[in-house]
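Case study 2.
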Amino acid sequence: MTRAVLFDFDGTLIDTWRLYLEAFRRAMEPHFLRLLTDAEILALEPTAERRLFERVVDRSRVEECYECFLRHYRSLHRTHCDGLYPGIAELLRVLRKDRYAVGVITGKSRRAWDLTFAESSLDSFDVVITDDGVAQPKPHPEGLLAALRACGIQPPEALYVGDSLLDCRAARAAGVPFGAALWSKQPEDVVTFQDAVTRIAGPDRCFINPSAVVEALRGEHCTNAADHAGGSDHEP
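Prediction:
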């Protein structure tokens, strides 16, 4: 039975798409000597800030580029961050009310997390694992396993909800059931993402909106209660 619900952050709980693209674009301008297009930035697979800079800029300029990114990330936050996805605040409220442990495993750096969390009006999570806290990023299961240890639960007792195949692969590697967050996907991308998730991890849960997460968990609870009641009828 599920005891903890763990989430990816960007693209799952909050829409930072425009914010990240613009902060990356401006931070890397001195290296490329021009502003990259969105497509060029996405082709670099920017899943974690410092790790991206370590791959694309001179080693001696990684920290400079990261600090530049943070300055732009901070200055652009209120104009380019599009906030929590509809239904997320209510989802988190219900999960806490129903006494689930709630956590985040994200590729954000801790400093970027602190900036966004302070602006988000979110309540504290039971555990937050950022990119600074792991040696191996997703799809390695290190972050998920660290969150499970912090919550004191076993992998089958958790659900990890994310919007990417990296999230799906990390969940599979950790032995954690995966839930595909479809609410941030463009309509034309939903079927492709669902099919890819199914190929990687089997027909796990797919959630069209945040309220579907609650419905699935409450359905699980009702099923377990019914199974328990049915078992009682057969006890000697």
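The beta strands are 4-7, 101-105, 127-129, 158-162, 178-181, 205-207.
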